[in-house]
Automatic annotation (TrEMBL):
Pfam families: GatB_N, GatB_Yqey. Belongs to the GatB/GatE family. GatB subfamily. SUPFAM superfamilies: GatB/YqeY motif, Glutamine synthetase/guanido kinase. InterPro entries: Asn/Gln-tRNA_amidoTrfase_suB/E, Asn/Gln-tRNA_Trfase_suB/E_cat, Asn/Gln_amidotransferase, Asn/Gln_tRNA_amidoTrase-B-like, GatB, GatB_Yqey_C_2, Gln-tRNA_amidoTrfase_suB_CS, Gln_synth/guanido_kin_cat_dom. Gene3D superfamilies: 1.10.10.410. Its EC number is 6.3.5.-. This is Aspartyl/glutamyl-tRNA(Asn/Gln) amidotransferase subunit B. One of its GO terms (biological process) is glutaminyl-tRNAGln biosynthesis via transamidation. It is an enzyme of class 6 (ligase). Allows the formation of correctly charged Asn-tRNA(Asn) or Gln-tRNA(Gln) through the transamidation of misacylated Asp-tRNA(Asn) or Glu-tRNA(Gln) in organisms which lack either or both of asparaginyl-tRNA or glutaminyl-tRNA synthetases. The reaction takes place in the presence of glutamine and ATP through an activated phospho-Asp-tRNA(Asn) or phospho-Glu-tRNA(Gln). Residues 339-486 form the Asn/Gln amidotransferase domain. Keywords: ATP-binding, Ligase, Nucleotide-binding, Protein biosynthesis, Transferase. Heterotrimer of A, B and C subunits.
Length: 487
């Protein structure tokens, strides 16, 4: 349980949070038509006669959209309903050409499931389970554009009919951090499954944020719904502001009105959009143009067989192979990173050595270059070769850093760079002993101090020897020979 509390003038308040996440289904067409769904297309260039609600046009479900929603439900270990039905949600708005939205109120495709989230980044074992109430599929509305003309609003129907999964959580979250962790984990799972690309900035995943406050242990308070929040950070900000606003209203003797609100990312505040009564009448009824969906065993088996290894299972596999819990969490946080690391392991790298190198060297280099793992200048196979040269003693840690820098600049393989530039580590005891003798002769005073008990000076002698050898001496051999020479 979260210990997040809002300290009001009259005492402590607890915040209760539920999220309704709209995730655009990855498919090559809309939910009930064959129109394209590419982001950024010219307005009204991806609109079929069905999307425009021309008379006599009948919807036909896109099997791929249903398949992706079922796979998502399976990934969340949710109940898959073999029988589900589409309903019409009736309301009038200029960007809704049909005058209704096809959704699933009474019989959704997916029932209850759960998501386990890490509530403390430093302690991966500190987890909380957030309930998922349902996942239903529905069509999106179009978009009104108010900035194209001084006195008129234009309508872009490109999004009209786009397939959405609405993933509804239980009101189980008790802090902005928990909500942020839930949204990140959900996005992660969707991207692993491939059912949604998770690009919140492009609108393909957005959240409606339900917030209420109560005295700890009391019944739920009246909630507000903040619509269409499109980043994890903004969701957390919206919760923080809305919860504090509600506490101020209640402590001032006022009442919370159930309403729909909008979040302003520039100010980090919410404002009222419209009141939303409990009895808001959308006049839902079964869509007469669509038969119920009935899923057979073969379809469900194919969906389950197509699921990839999911983030939690992948993290456990990495940890079992020797990767630290922290590194395992970092490596599984994005599906592209996990794929890159898996390719590195498949190329023969040791899991623990590889994870430390990826977390420190590779991520550091990518941050410096402003590049992502998909755009990495070094392939997993090239990285595996570099790590192998470290493991077999050909390269020291410092030499490996030099070789890696050249790989980033040139794209050349590690072995080629080592040969061409003579960067191979030496274990030639004769050459190393000769340099040690020179270092000892040049630092007689420090030798005397070391022999009189100043053990910490040993590092100085190692550094001087490595410097004299141009960083190419095997550190293990240097340490061994220095101990003998210094007595």
């Amino acid at each position: 349980m979260s210990d997040y509390r809002i300290q009001g003038a009259t005492g402590e308040w607890e915040v209760v949070i539920g999220l309704e996440v709209h995730a655009q289904v990855t498919s090559n067409a809309k939910l009930f038509s064959g129109a394209a769904t590419a982001f950024g297309a010219e307005p009204n260039s991806q609109v079929s006669l069905v999307d425009a609600a021309m008379p006599g046009m009948l919807p036909v479900p896109n099997k791929e959209c249903i398949r992706q929603a079922v796979r998502t439900g399976m990934a969340l270990e949710a109940q898959i309903n073999r029988w589900s039905r589409f309903d019409r949600k009736n309301y009038f708005y200029a960007d809704l050409p049909q005058g209704y939205q096809i959704s699933q109120l009474y019989h959704p495709l997916v029932g209850e499931g759960a998501i386990e989230v890490a509530v403390d980044e430093k302690n991966p074992d500190a987890t909380k389970t957030i309930g998922v109430e349902r996942i239903h599929v529905e069509q999106d509305a179009g978009k009104l554009m108010h900035d194209q003309h001084p006195t008129r609003s234009y309508v872009d129907l490109n999004r009209s009919g786009v397939a959405l999964m609405e993933i509804v959580s239980r009101p189980d979250m008790r802090s902005p951090a928990e909500a942020g962790a839930y949204l990140r984990k959900l996005r992660n799972v969707l991207r692993y499954v491939g059912s949604c690309d998770g690009n919140m900035e492009e609108g393909s995943m957005r959240a409606d944020v339900n917030v209420s406050v109560r005295r700890p242990g009391e019944p739920f308070g009246t909630r507000t719904e903040t619509k269409n929040v499109n980043s994890v950070r903004f969701v957390m900000q919206a919760i923080e502001h809305e919860a504090s606003r509600q506490v101020d209203v209640l402590e001032g003797g006022g009442q919370i009105v159930q309403e729909t609100r909008l979040f302003n990312p520039d100010t980090g505040t919410t404002r009222s959009m419209r009141s939303k009564e409990d009895a808001h009448d959308y006049r839902y009824f079964p869509d007469p143009d669509l038969l119920p969906l009935e899923l057979d065993d073969a379809f469900l088996e194919e969906c389950r067989a197509s699921l990839p290894e999911l983030p939690d299972a992948k993290r456990r596999r990495y940890e079992a192979a020797g990767v630290s819990p922290y590194n395992a969490g970092v490596l599984t946080a994005e599906v592209e990173t996990a794929r890159w690391f898996d390719a590195l392991l498949e190329a023969g790298s040791d899991a623990k050595q590889a994870s430390n190198w990826v977390a420190a060297e590779l991520f550091g280099a990518l941050n410096r270059l402003g590049r992502s793992i998909e755009d990495c200048p070094v392939s997993p196979a090239q990285a595996a070769e570099l790590l192998k040269l470290v493991a077999d003693g050909t390269l020291s840690g410092s030499l490996a850093k030099q070789v890696f820098e050249v790989m980033l600049e040139t794209g050349d393989d590690a072995g080629k760079i080592v040969e061409e530039r003579g960067l191979k580590q030496t274990s030639d005891t004769g050459a190393i002993e000769a340099e040690i003798a020179k270092v000892i002769a040049a630092n007689a005073d420090k030798v005397a101090e070391y022999r009189s008990g100043k053990d910490k000076l040993f590092g100085f002698f190692v550094g001087q020897t490595m410097k004299a050898m141009g960083g190419k001496a095997n550190p293990g051999v240097v340490n061994e020979l220095l101990k003998k020479a210094l007595g």
